[in-house]
Amino acid sequence: MTEGSKALEPVSTPARGRGRPRDEEKDAAIAEATWRLLAEKGYEALTFESVAELVGCSRSTLYRRFANKAELVEATLGQTSRRIEPRIDDSMSPREVLIAHARALCTYMAGPRGPATLMMSFSAEHHAELAAAIARHGMNEQTFYLREFERARPGTSEQVRDFAFNTLIGTIIFHVAVLRTTLTERQIIRLVDGALTLLEMEPG
Fold first, then answer.
1. Could you report the per-residue pLDDT of 68-89, keeping only the tens digit for each?
2. Residue 198 pLDDT more than 60?
3. 11: closest CA among 53, 54, 41?
4. Which domains does the chain have, with CATH numbers?
5. Can you tell me whether residue 122 is helix, strand or coil?
6. Nearest to residue 62, comparing CAs of 48, 76, 75?
7. Are 176 and 106 spatial neighbours (Cβ–Cβ below 8 Å)?
């Protein structure tokens, strides 16, 4: 550790509730530690040893779960998404579903996850395995939005839906992860409505 650097305190494992699987607790602690290390040191410095030290587990615990650190990152992305995934039911309109997902994305990008996500994006340019992991996760997340865009305006081309998606997500990431601002509910709704308006750009 260099002089003046700040040591990371160990991650506390959540108190175990009745019937809660121990692996779920460990996975949550691993994900939290991974996010903290990514935000503090970046992907290049991320190691199984550093994660194990924060979690308070052995390296073998991680090696049993992941073949490499790209798999660790992909699992962390997926677990975080599932943890903040909004409650959706069939009675909700496409607009309501999109607002719920946009709100969840704002939560996802809050705290250390925002800077860590940006740092990973830069690192992905030099690490093919990380780029592939991020791409797989991104495609999975994109599916939710594109499905609702199609419901909102059936027959819209993939190109237009992709444009609406990238505009919505890019704006949220810019404000929350880059500028480190908190979007209000009204602002989130306006962004979603703006993305839906873009669907009307379909030629013909």
1. 999 999 999 999 888 888 999 9
2. yes
3. 54
4. 22-75 (1.10.10.60), 77-201 (1.10.357.10)
5. helix
6. 48
7. yes
